[in-house]
Amino acid sequence: MERKHVDHEFSLQAVPQSHRNGFWRMLVVMLGFTFFSASMWSGGTLGNGLTFTQFIWMVLAGNLILGLYTGALAYVAAATGLSTHLLTRYAFGEKGSYVTSFLLSATQVGWFGVGVAMFAIPVEKVTGINTYVLIALAGILMTGSAFFGMKALAVISFIAVPAIAVLGSFSVYKATETIGGFQGLFEHQPTEMLSLAAALTICVGSFISGGTLTPDFARFAKTKRSGVITTLIAFFIGNSLMFFFGAIGAIATGQSDISEVMFIQGLIIPAIIVLGLNIWTTNDNALYASGLGFSNITKIKKSKVVLFNGIVGTILAMWLYNNFVGFLTLLGSTLPPIGALILADYFIVQRGKYKEFEKMQFKAINWTALAAWGAGVALAKFVPGIPPLNAIIGSAIVYIVLSVVVKNAAMATTSEVQRVS
To answer: How far is 112 from 116, CA to CA, in rounded Å?
Structure first.
């Protein structure tokens, strides 16, 4: 009898308890997830636009918001064992989930390509190795780790997290010495002040799109408690550390990326290691998540989709880097309402109880969810305030209200039919 091959990434089903991970493995994976270069750039912007005391408060407030959002998604994922893409079937319907999976996955493939170029360009400048050779090498390695799934992601994160934390902290310490130590940081006065609302928008907006994919990783947590706690720790420590690296680097040297600071300090090899590992932990997570998304649409095994996505992202890396960063940022603004609708559907509409995935008969398209998603995107774009929060809160409220209206209308119609008959 031929043995059926098991998909250990559970692309199209819930992760069984027998394949869940313990606290420490989940923690390093989630920390690797939050070690994100864009957070350093955002930290640099905040560092140049706020006093250091204001900066600390904004980072704490921003990561509290991110932590609550991603922690709630981690709870749902650990409770159900489902990825973001499978969870969206409950709110959006099966065919409706293809829309959200495409948006999430296309964005992640795009950022994967940009990340490969972000590694290759500075390394070419200091080593003279051809950019396209570096792109090919980085693309192959990062695609490989994403191909082998959660076990490989954990191994990379076990190496990367302490290496980035130790080497980055050493570089930041050296940088602070040039401006009078920590006293100099707290005496720093920005030339142009950022408003606190703008600062909070930058802090939350830097990672909320990626945070929407939290369930893709948190579904492997053995318990809801460990899923939530490891996610909260990752955002309060991992993401905050990236912001601090960026802010201190920008204040001391004018460079937000810690690897650029290291290049200035003459720490060439540590800079390449930190740059490579930092982008690697982000890129393999992005590619892994994109594989799950396109697998939801095509029903092709995740590992095969990852290979295809990795090849596309690597080939298009320079083109994406030169032409599409602005577009990917814009596309990212459409993602937070997706997470908000998962939370609103699970906690409010369904009251924390989802029928088992394998036993569900999903609608083809839930137009209520798509309308609420569109409303969230519009609220982020056109309503004053903090755009990501507008999107999350607005889409959730619209979805809950519309769900109640549709349910009441259906009940009224049923009652009328029964009365007439």
So the answer is: 6
Distance CA 187, CA 209 (A): 34
The amino acid at residue 234 is: A
pLDDT band at 324 (very low <50, low <70, confident <90, very high): confident
* Angle at CA of residue 360, ends 358 and 365, nearest 5°: 125
140: CB partners within 8 A, 6+ apart: 314
The predicted-structure confidence for 118-174, as pLDDT tens digits, reads as follows 999 999 988 999 999 999 999 999 999 999 988 999 999 999 999 999 998 999 899
How distant, in Å, are the alpha carbons of 51, 154, 188, 312, 387 from that of 330? Answer: 29, 30, 32, 21, 12
Give pLDDT tens digits for 32-64.
999 888 888 889 889 989 999 999 999 999 999
Which residues have a Cβ under 8 Å from the Cβ of 72 and sit 6 or more positions away? Answer: 343, 347
The answer to whether 133 and 123 are in contact (CB under 8 A) is: no
